[in-house]
Design brief:
The protein is α/β, with parallel strands linked by helices and 250 residues long. The chain is 32% helix and 30% strand. The strands form 2 sheets. It has a 5-stranded mixed barrel with strand order 6-12-11-7-13, surrounded by 4 helices. The chain has a two-stranded antiparallel ribbon with strand order 8-9. Helix 1 crosses helix 6.
């Protein structure tokens, strides 16, 4: 249930300084289901944040790294100006998993959030922007937090790739895996969310529920409902980890 702002006054939560950024409302709502109780909607310049009664703030940041970065930056800035900056940003949602390491319905926690295709194609092959002498291609969540999140949820840890184009062929999947041997999953927002968080000195975590294999595009084989359910279940188990982190940072 979403309450208008005036009805939501007085809600308190131990996780108000944790922001969970998803791509779309369906993912945001799946996370919200892990935290029973009313939800208050707050409209900010450039973002709409949903505040749960017993959990973190939720943001449907939009699809793709650019919009996700812009929306996350707006929410982070508004919170900082309000005197209650976020202590942690979690990028969450469903995504593709690299078989056989990340099967359908499983959870993946990123120990590295990497822009898979940010760079240049050359005659010698692909070069990430770091090898061109500028930028960054990887953000690393706090190691202890990623490990605790994986242990609590039963997730595997590895690299989660951020792509602007969802992989749809076996050849592309093979190319990505060869370029990023530790990759377990791909999504479209993690690197953008991480860039926004890093710009304001806020740590970031990414968790993905696998809805489809990375490879040939076959919508009939996707298990979106199962992945959203896994996301809800995962956040139910993740809550104590987030609360501990939030309290440690107070």
């Amino acid at each position: 249930m979403v309450l208008p702002p005036e009805e939501g006054r007085g809600l308190t939560t131990s996780l108000t300084r944790v922001l969970v950024a998803t791509a779309v409302p369906a993912e945001r709502d799946a996370v919200a289901e892990a935290f029973p109780g009313p939800v208050r909607e707050r409209t900010l310049p450039g973002a709409v944040v949903h505040r749960t009664a017993d959990g973190p703030d939720l943001l449907a940041a939009g699809v793709g790294p650019a919009l996700a970065a812009a929306s996350t930056a707006a929410a982070l800035t508004a919170a900082a100006l309000d005197g209650r900056p976020y202590a942690l940003v979690v990028c969450a949602g469903i995504g593709g998993g690299f078989a056989p390491d990340a099967p359908l319905g499983s959870l993946v926690v990123a120990d590295a959030i990497t822009a898979a295709d940010l760079g240049a194609e050359t005659a010698e092959g692909f070069l990430p922007v770091t090898e061109l002498g500028f930028g960054t291609v990887t953000h690393r969540p706090p190691a202890s937090l990623a490990a605790a999140a994986a242990a609590a949820t039963g997730a595997r840890t590895g690299t989660v790739l951020t792509v602007s184009t969802v992989t749809g062929t076996a050849a592309r999947a093979d190319t990505l895996r060869a370029r990023h041997p530790r990759a377990l999953a791909e999504g479209m927002e993690g690197f953008g969310v991480a860039e926004a968080a890093a710009a304001q000195g806020v740590p970031v975590l990414e968790i993905r529920a696998v809805s489809n294999p990375v490879g040939p595009r076959d919508r009939a084989a996707w298990r979106i409902g199962d992945a959203l359910a896994a996301l809800t279940d995962g956040f139910g188990k993740l809550a104590p980890v987030l609360e501990s982190w939030n309290q440690h940072d107070q």
